[in-house]
From TrEMBL:
Keyword Transcription belongs to the record: yes
Domain spans labelled HTH tetR-type: 3-63
Protein name as annotated: TetR family transcriptional regulator
Pfam family, one: TetR_N
DNA-binding region as annotated in the record: 26-45
The entry's keywords: DNA-binding, Transcription, Transcription regulation
Keyword Transcription regulation recorded: yes
InterPro entries for this protein: Homeodomain-like_sf, HTH_TetR, Tet_transcr_reg_TetR-rel_C_sf
Length: 210
């Protein structure tokens, strides 16, 4: 019963964030959404902020699990960008894009929410690093591009596009187009023959030393 109640509260908090926004995420509203008494929030989590932080981590785990198999099936950087565009549309439709924007804003004044949001993004970064390590291995960029750094840059870009879209949807779409162009360039490099790839690597080494 305790585990079931905690899950109800986590789901209720997420639904409140998506449907009503963080400004309406009070103990009374969350408890009503979850269908439990307000006192259970403080019994299980101590405070509303701690519940929201736990819900943020819980929600991120759910979203990563939802997309993990699709990420594992990607075969190129171009497919990764195509997946990112499709996932962005799905997450926006589900209300998770707006929720992330609110959590990022609320995290400026709530250390608990800031840590939970960062932890949620960290789950995505781990998945992206694994995918990028695998995909870059098939290109001349292998050994020159840092998958861990690229994963963080990709996550930061995705968050930026999500927030940017609220004020300039066309500009956000253009950003995705630019990422697709870079992925197309990577595909060209991947399609080069062994001698050409060796020449590219040689040029990269010289540039790195410089």
């Amino acid at each position: 019963m305790s585990a079931a109640t905690k899950d109800k509260l986590l789901e209720g908090a997420l639904r409140t964030l998506v449907e009503q926004g963080i400004a309406k995420a009070s103990a009374r509203t969350i408890a009503a959404t979850a269908g439990v008494g307000q006192g259970l929030i403080f019994y299980h989590f101590g405070s509303v902020d701690e519940l929201l932080a736990a819900a943020c981590r819980y929600g991120a785990e759910q979203r990563v699990d939802r997309y993990r198999d699709r990420l594992a099936g990607l075969g190129s950087l171009a497919e990764l960008v195509e997946f990112a565009r499709a996932m962005h549309a799905e997450e926006r439709e589900a209300g998770h894009v707006a929720m992330l924007g609110q959590l990022l804003a609320a995290g400026q004044s709530s250390p608990a929410l800031a840590a939970a949001t960062a932890a949620g993004l960290g789950l995505w970064i781990e998945e992206l690093e694994e995918v990028l390590t695998r995909l870059l291995a098939a290109t001349p960029l292998d050994g020159f591009a840092d998958p861990a750094g690229l994963a963080r840059a990709t996550a930061a870009s995705f968050v930026g596009i999500e927030l940017y879209e609220a004020v300039d949807p066309q500009g956000a779409d253009s950003a995705f187009d630019a990422l697709e162009q870079l992925a197309g360039l990577a595909a060209v490099l991947e399609g080069l023959g062994p001698l050409s790839q060796r020449a590219v690597r040689h040029g990269l080494r010289r540039g790195t030393r410089g």
